[in-house]
Amino acid sequence: MRGGYRARLIGKTAEYSLKKRLEKAGWSVMRAPASGARSSEAVPDIVALKAGRILMFEVKLRDKPRSIYIEEHKYTGIMNYARRAGAQVYLAVKVRGEDDFRVLPWSEAERVELRNGVWYVFYKEKLDRAKTLTQLLSELGA
User: Would you please indicate which residues are annotated as catalytic (active-site) residues?
Assistant: First the structure.
């Protein structure tokens, strides 16, 4: 099993933090029950609904900004899940010591082939230029 108990618990903290922020902004929010678990279908960590809009987020917590690698089956699974729902999907990264989440559209990831398989990478340079959650919600009129 990837991560260990402590890593999953810390990740859940970031997910609940995002959930609270979205709820405060008036969104109906659900944390996916399969979040962090191995399941047959990859699903995003957070689903948010408001006035006919659907947002989905894969949430990551980091000590400092760095590139984030997503396994191919998870990346494509979440993309397909969002497509079926008609949702916009984002990577939301909480960097310790920062007040806001950094958000990148899911489509910003780049496909790379490594020795251990195919991955989708959100490079640090893109993360450094990412919008904040506050900016994203403002642009969406939320």
Answer: 35
95 and 130 in contact (C-beta within 8 Å)?
Answer: no
Q: What's the CATH code, domain 5-139? A: 3.40.1350.10
37 pLDDT more than 90: no
Burial class (CB in 10 A: 0-12, 13-18, 19+), 134: middle
Q: What is the identity of the amino acid at 111?
A: R
Pick from 10, 32, 11: nearest CA to 87:
32
pTM: 0.88
Residue with tokens 């699903």: 43
Q: How far apart are CA 100 and CA 138, in angstroms?
A: 13
Give the pLDDT score at 26.
Answer: 96
Decide the pairing of beta strands 88-95 and 53-62. parallel
H-helix or E-strand spanning residue 38 = none
Q: Where are the domains of the chain?
A: 5-139
